[in-house]
Amino acid sequence: MVSVDTDLADELSHHDDDFTARDLVQYLERHHPVEGPGVPRDLVEAYADELEYDRERFDTSLDGRLTDAQSWQPGDRLYRIGENVSVYPPSWHERLADTTDLSDYVDVMLESVRAPEGVEVDRSDLGVSQADLLTAVEIIGEIDRGEAKNLLKSQRLEGSIVLYAFQNPEELVRLPREESE
Predict the structure, then answer these.
(1) Where are the beta strands (DSSP E) in 43-82?
(2) Which domain of life is it from (predicted)?
(3) Which of 12, 49, 62, 151 is in Cβ range 3.0-4.6 Å of 21 for a Cys bridge?
């Protein structure tokens, strides 16, 4: 039997008009700790019931986003990981579960970026949004947002990641350029 955190449900009730099935899964991954990657589907459904979501509509949205893919898929997908559901694919959880090295996260996240057919893109020009990076390390690395922000700052100062305009939350996080020999 799953248990809904009533305080968390109350907090969610102030935002639930805007929450899609994916938003709810992401929120629960961040704020309702469970063992292993993702959150149990029955936990997601219990929160949907507690929040009095239209279950038919919610279940349709959830099922329409679910995939068994092991790697990142375009669109607002949700990934099955055993009996659990996650906003990140199983391969990301497997590769990143034991690290909080943000350069590893950026590297894995950039693997999902594909240039349009016939267009060459220098990978060092690509980056990941700070918000996306912080959320990924928060969920997969199982640390809180404040700790993730501290990692961003310290690893930027160490040079393992690059932010040209650190104070700008819209600035992309990049990997350092490799020096050519």
Answers:
(1) 66-67, 78-81
(2) Archaea
(3) 62
Instruction: Estimate the crossing angle of helix 130-140 against helix 21-31, to 10 degrees.
Output: 60
What local confidence, expressed as pLDDT, does residue 163 receive? 86
Q: Domain residues of the chain, as ranges? A: 6-91, 98-173
Digit-coded pLDDT (tens) for 75-93:
889 999 999 999 999 999 9
Are 48 and 4 contacting, i.e. CB atoms less than 8 angstroms apart? no
Listed ranges 11-15, 92-96, 112-116; the one with the highest mean pLDDT: 92-96
Task: Please name the residue that has the structure tokens 């959830």.
Answer: 62
The 3-state DSSP class for residue 81 equals strand
Amino acid at site 29: E
Smallest CA-to-CA distance from 24 within 13, 35, 37, 131 is with 13
Report the relative pairing of strands 128-129 and 84-86 from DSSP bridges: unpaired
- Phi then psi for residue 100, to 5 deg, are -125, 20
The residue whose two tokens read 């994916």 is 22
CB-based burial label for 157 (10 Å; 0-12, 13-18, 19+): exposed
